[in-house]
């Protein structure tokens, strides 16, 4: 690794954390600062030194936690402090990743950088859905296209539908799910047969992967009916017919499932052997004692030599007694909140939401790191109830948790999907509370 390089623009790959390059992994291990996106598998952050700064820049289509200019500026700023900076981007940094713009700023500032390619989502979708993008019997070319069609300002860079319609090559559309009807219409209008096979591969290379097989004529309707969720790529061309024979990944995940069937609920977490299961407990309700019960479990687990980790959502309070106690026990406790959550219309609410999302990304990294036996997500239910986190996104992370792992969730108003997922749910009911009698919060009792 070059000593003068300050910034590494690294492709994280499409989803499976094993698909990052060896060089990309080394860069993460060396980094002083990591800036990462929403589409990067958070498990990759397990390679980053605990001393390094991790900055979630939460970029996905149409929603930027940090505007692009600020990301560019942050790269220059951190590199200027003499730090080794890794800018980790989903897939390949130069495929619909605005990687070019980010290093352009660096080039202008004279900061030495390197680009480490990654497996782009379209290639991963082909590989993991058993659809070779080129094949001697079908086609000799493949084209990567943005499906983000309606917002192009520059007409000259608009999609060349006549060229795409005329050819026979495989087409791979990124960011195309919401525009799938336009994509299919334009391709048919410009010469592709209405019965051209196509595949919509969502969450490629992850346990959530689904492949929907359709034709240009019926894909929009199928996508709506099946409720396909992003991220997804759309593969168009005769090579899609090979999926039926060559699919290996989904068949292995759910032997009984065929493509285009809705994903079986919690399939990855319902193995036969109960002792190897992920165990999920929830402490909810309006009474006092939810976090306290969770800390009790931490104590028990430490006593058995188990590796415990605690992430606190919403909280940001250095004075709580548990911080010092847990430190003595060697249990890392990380506060991911910003304190008292204002109403959604308050200007600071968005910052609280970003903090909660960052916390969820940290939780996901911890869950998949393989380094823990018990993970407590304190106040995660309350974060969902206050709209800081999407319940289904939390469920989605927890459902994939590798066994055997115990997860403890606390907070008021646990939502139905979380309750449904959990094995044990206790509701703590207030009978009376000292606070109502004017007794203030006390050390060792409330904090
Ligand atoms: N630089 C990235 C692409 C970023 S654009 C890359 O090379 O892969 C974001 C788009 O990538 C999404 O809208 C979706 O079309 C695609 N994508 C990213 N991850 C994906 C995944 N795991 N499965 C399917 N599509 C994915």
TrEMBL record:
PROSITE patterns: SUMT_1, SUMT_2
Entry's Gene Ontology BP terms: cobalamin biosynthetic process; methylation; siroheme biosynthetic process
InterPro entries for this protein: 4pyrrol_Mease, 4pyrrol_Methylase_sf, 4pyrrole_Mease_sub1, 4pyrrole_Mease_sub2, CblAdoTrfase_CobA, CobA/CysG_C, P-loop_NTPase, Siro_Cobalamin_biosynth
Single GO MF descriptor: ATP binding
Highest rank taxon of the organism: Bacteria
Keywords: Cobalamin biosynthesis, Methyltransferase, Porphyrin biosynthesis, S-adenosyl-L-methionine, Transferase
Compositionally biased region (Polar residues): 256-273
Keyword Nucleus: no
Region (Disordered): 254-275
Pathway where this protein functions: Porphyrin-containing compound metabolism; siroheme biosynthesis; precorrin-2 from uroporphyrinogen III: step 1/1; Cofactor biosynthesis; adenosylcobalamin biosynthesis; precorrin-2 from uroporphyrinogen III: step 1/1; Cofactor biosynthesis; adenosylcobalamin biosynthesis; adenosylcobalamin from cob(II)yrinate a,c-diamide: step 2/7
Domain Tetrapyrrole methylase: 6-219
Keyword flag S-adenosyl-L-methionine: yes
Catalysed conversion reaction: 2 cob(II)yrinate a,c diamide + reduced [electron-transfer flavoprotein] + 2 ATP = 2 adenosylcob(III)yrinate a,c-diamide + 2 triphosphate + oxidized [electron-transfer flavoprotein] + 3 H(+); 2 cob(II)alamin + reduced [electron-transfer flavoprotein] + 2 ATP = 2 adenosylcob(III)alamin + 2 triphosphate + oxidized [electron-transfer flavoprotein] + 3 H(+)
Enzyme Commission code: 2.1.1.107, 2.5.1.17
PANTHER family per record: S-ADENOSYL-L-METHIONINE-DEPENDENT UROPORPHYRINOGEN III METHYLTRANSFERASE, CHLOROPLASTIC, SIROHEME SYNTHASE-RELATED
Similarity comment text for this entry: Belongs to the precorrin methyltransferase family. Belongs to the Cob(I)alamin adenosyltransferase family.
Its biological purpose: Required for both de novo synthesis of the corrin ring for the assimilation of exogenous corrinoids. Participates in the adenosylation of a variety of incomplete and complete corrinoids.
Protein name, per record: Cob(II)alamin adenosyltransferase
Organism phylogeny: Bacteria, Pseudomonadati, Thermodesulfobacteriota, Desulfuromonadia, Desulfuromonadales
